[in-house]
Amino acid sequence: MMTGKMTRLARNGVALAAVATAGVLMAQATPGAPQVRDPSGLNLPANLQIFGKQDPNVRKPTAIVNDSVITGTDVDQRMNMTLALNNMKIPDAERDQVRLQVLRQLIDETLQIQEAKANEIAVTTGEMDQSFDRIARNFKQTPAQFREYLRSVGSSDRSLRRQIEGELAWNRLLRKKVTPFVNVGDEEVKAILDRLKASQGTEEYHIKEIYLSSTPERSGEVVANARKMIEQMRGGAPFEYFARNFSEASTRAVDGDLDWVKLAVLPPELQDAASKMGVGQIAGPVEIAGGYSILYLVDKRQVLMADPRDAKLSLRQLTVKFPAGTTQAQASQRAAAFAKATQAINGCGGVSKVATDIGAEVVDNDSVTIRQLPPQLQEILMKMQIGQSTPPFGSPEEGVRALVLCGRDDARVAGLPSSDAVQAKLEEDRVNLRAQRMLRDIRRDAVVEYR
Hints:
Strand order of the largest sheet: 4-3-6-5
Radius of gyration: 26 Å
Keywords: Chaperone, Isomerase, Periplasm, Rotamase, Signal
CATH topology of the largest domain: Chitinase A, domain 3
InterPro entries: OMP_Chaperone_SurA, PPIase_dom_sf, PPIase_PpiC, SurA_N, Trigger_fact/SurA_dom_sf
Shape: globular
Signal peptide: 1-27
Protein name: Parvulin-like PPIase
Distance between the termini: 36 Å
GO molecular function, one term: isomerase activity
CATH class of the largest domain: Alpha Beta
Number of helices: 13
Strand content: 15-25%
CATH architecture of the largest domain: Roll
Structural class: alpha+beta
Helix content: 40-55%
């Protein structure tokens, strides 16, 4: 859910313009071989030979991008930062693959900064400082503490500031060269509103996707890699991390987000998979034309209909934190005592006394919707009565918690979005699409030398 969203599956593979430093790949048709139509559009010979042993998938972790150097240290620091901030651990056997993905990201980032400077767009030191400080606050640290944290995980503030520079420069370039030329007509907006009215009551699915291209020869390898990703995601790794780093669809730029779609717009294989998924579930790898997809169902709804999960809740949360070094057995014992105490609560008026008795912290929230909560809690809260408590939930590291329902304002029938909201969404989609095309053209013109 991120910045912008693409609303259609896009199968544009990500390719880097590169100058090979060793080996030569040459193709030659066998004399007299029949000419077969080449579906790639690249005019490849029907029967080719490869001369040289260079593996195009093997890249050394340094590059010169139009005279700008990306070092192995740059790659390591960005990889360490990305893994640490996403709270991820990867097996040693997969580190080389992740390094290649990070290197590609750094090359794109360098190209974006260079293109912005060529258009007289620069990001000041003060602007990068402001963004860095804001990110530090998001992690509940001071800037000095956050710099020390980055160093402790094998990264640096320089790596994050470089990423900040790339994002700010690229966004400003888009505002200068793309956004002013994106137009959405009144008739287009009206057509969308008319379609929404006509589809009232039909189901929509908010889906994120990772697309991995494959050939028959590589299908086993691709499926194995996809299953490793799914295993890590089910273990808590963010879906968005894998979409951003491994997906080969243009939606990788928006963390694989397809936005709200009707199943009819998806390939049949994905329709079948999505229709069987519950909110918060992951499915795949699903074989489709040209490769495999991994799906994540963020949410689903009925168009212009009231949804129970849009009900606004008034909640009181009780939290008991565990001391460092608490074992699983000790955590289970304390959780059982916590559960007994919270299940005895009769109404929110009794929360404070129970909290005092068991040494729990209490936090109130009067404006959260059921939809904003994790899927496991959504189902529980939709069935709860006022004054009841959820079962305990948590972990040995973060302690145990429970939510007490103090009030509920049921959702009203959803209305049509405003014309301005529809227009803004259309403009956002078109800017994202043109941004992908612009980056593709920049890559084609780039000179990238791997060392």
